Amino acid sequence: MEVKSLGEDIYEIVCGTSHYREVNSKVKELVLKGAKKVILREVYGQRYIGTGIKGKVKIEVYGTAGNDLGIFLFGPEIEVFGNAQDGVGNTMKEGKIIVRGHAGDVCGYGMRGGKVYIEGDVGYRVGIHMKGYKDLVPTFIVGGKAGNFFGEYMAGGILILLGLTKRAGEDIVGDYCATGMHGGVIFVRGEVPSRYLGKEVKVFEPDLEDMKILTKELKGFSDAFNIPLDEILSEPFTKIVPVSTRPYGRLYAHRWAVARGLIK
Amino acid sequence: MLFKKPQVAFYPFMVLRDDYKCVRCKSCVDQCSFDATYYDEDLNMIMNHHENCVNCKRCEAFCPTDAIKVVKNPSTFHPDANWTPEAIRDIHVQMLTGAIILTSTGNDKPIRNYFDHLLLDACQVTNPPIDPLREPMELKTFIGRKTDALEFDPDGVSIKTTIGKQLELEIPVLFSAMSYGSINLNLQKAMARAAKEFGTYWNTGEGGLHRDLREYKECTIVQVASGRFGVDLEYLETSAAIEIKIGQGAKPGIGGHLPGEKVNEGIAQTRMIPVGSDAISPAPHHDIYSIEDLRQLIYALKEATNYEKPVFVKIAAVHNVAAIACGIAHAGADAVVIDGVRGGTGATPKSLRDHVGIPIELAIAAVDDRLRKEGLRNQVSLIAAGGFRSAVDVLKAVALGADAVYIGTVAKLAAGCTQCQQCHTGRCAWGITTNDPRLAKRLNPDIVAENLYNLLRAWAHDIKELLGAMGINAIESIRGNRLRLRSWGLTEQENKILGVLPAGM
């Protein structure tokens, strides 16, 4: 592992085959020394990049970021020039992750803040159990296509699927999209056939207020990847929201509630 | 079919009131949170909706003239060992609602309690017992990964080997995970205070950590469950240890379940979910489908907290618990927590509570045995949970091989719980498992903290007394020491699993 200073507050680490523990502890050490930007070169799947760091540091990753990139992220901005593996932005709270490539499964699991932009496609179970409360709203945007269980159990936040890499005849999303969703909102560019959707959601055409939110969120994505906003917005969007905040309310009962007349 | 609903016609409990003694103070009306009692102004009488009574005994406790007794309804179904009242009532609920029956607390079925079939040893003549009142007795327990071997300095006195972070317990008992939401802040406060004062730990459960409890960082175990509620870097840092919850004895194989009735504004904020929605955690952690994935999360937590916190992994005791526990040890956990079939909960489908999992006694013995055989026992501490009732249960668990024991129901009982099994309704009349501010106020954290401290003190003395009788002066010496146990009334196979000899041998 080679560490170089590239001028004021900027460092470069050539990761190679170094263990993630070595790489990450070096990054933490540099951040504590006041680094504003750390460039990681030759990244070969090192895990947990950006984890356990507080503050506004920028981390650039050249190569392939390993699993759990930015898990529990709490402030840093990570930009990956390449692909990322599973668990991007897992349980993240604050900060930003930009992936200039594809990402794997369970990205954005339990995400509760910050922004994730994936330029390409994502795997299964992306954006599941995202959360939000009032003005604490996480945003996860996928430029390409998504696998099964996209936005499963979603409880809050904004999940956007653009399908810009989709070729004719391909599906933008897999089966069981938004199954068990009970909060938040999903926007999909184009149409989503109802057979792909969980029965806990309904589909709407975005209204003016929705378009304002969409435009605001997509502006960041468009800037990050240099894709004209007009082009992204050139197709109509589908809005997916839960029918109820309590999809399984009628699935459970007990003697007292029936006796009391709370369950008819 | 029926004029009245069967729940209204055939109820389990009755509130008997001595009208001569009743002074119409209406305190029972005020105290009943299940709408079972009301005052009829025209008759100047206190009346009851017996069908709503859950036998929580709050009215009994608050009646100033002792005019009330809550009793089993003497009118019961025809005696039938197969079609018990419970079986009939469950059918009545399901035929009307088409729903899964939700319940709470722990398994209430007469599954054999092996602790009651184990007897402890004592010293007589050939080796002397120790007098615990006047001689030093050591209950100190360390939880965490121990080294494979010790290296000494050339002087032969000082130890060169360093050891990872350990939790230091003054008694091998910790307060079990009960989340903010399933119980209210008052009981969490009381547990945190008692833990801090006595020298043990409390566990946040999966509902996040309220800011008022951050000051108890040094004695707090924070939990990371599949719902990831309240989990962020600051939460992970505000802890003495981190526990990954895979499963729970009361509901192995499914995730946490906080009914929407209990999700008010405060709970919605900490869990970041809509008000009134059921907080049902995913059945699996979706980033853990294998032991290798578990290792990934364990090390994610260690990376996030600079390898400063021991990481526990909690599982329900299921059929292959010993093999799973070994996998957890291999995955890098510092402690394995196993929760037996009698483990409690704030809400669970009844079918899971009563029929899934295995008794903790057998699980401890099997896990301890297997870890030893694989040479892994020193790498993980073993914490047992699920239905522990007394210091004797704790000591027997330690003798079977556990390092420490988690208690949850005991803490609730010390806060006034009467085990009425209504935690899931969010209406707890004792103010324990409710988030209704009017009811939650009934639990005074100062008094309960004192009760809990007293309880730990009593158990510590109890354990010391038993150890002394066995001629042992440190809890270390009884751990996994099954020779000091004998069984009665068990089969050969059961004795083999427990690794104990029958009494008389």
Q: Distance N terminus to C terminus of chain A?
A: 67 Å
- Termini gap of chain B: 62 Å
**In percent, how helical is the residue content of chain A?**
10-25%
Radius of gyration of chain B: 24 Å
Strand arrangement, largest sheet of chain B?
A: 9-19-18-16-15-12-11-10
CATH class of the domain at 102-259 in chain A: Mainly Beta
Order of helices and strands of chain A: EEHEEEEEEEEEHHEEH
Helix content of chain B: 25-40%
Q: Could you describe the largest sheet of chain B, including whether it forms a barrel?
A: 8 strands, parallel
Residue share in β-strands of chain B: 15-25%
Number of helices of chain B: 16
Q: What is the number of independent domains of chain B?
A: 2
The greatest interface between two protein chains, and residues involved on each side, is: A-B, 52 and 57 residues
Bulk shape of chain B: globular
CATH superfamily heading of the largest domain in chain B: Aldolase class I
